[in-house]
Amino acid sequence: MSETLLECNQCNSPYGYPTGNGLYACPECGNEWNPEDTINDNSLKVVDSNGNELQDGDTVMVIKDLPVKGMPKPIKAGTKVKNIRLTDGDHNINCKIDGFGAMALKSQFVKKA
Question: What are the chain's domains?
Answer without folding.
Answer: 1-42 (2.20.25), 46-112 (2.30.30.40)
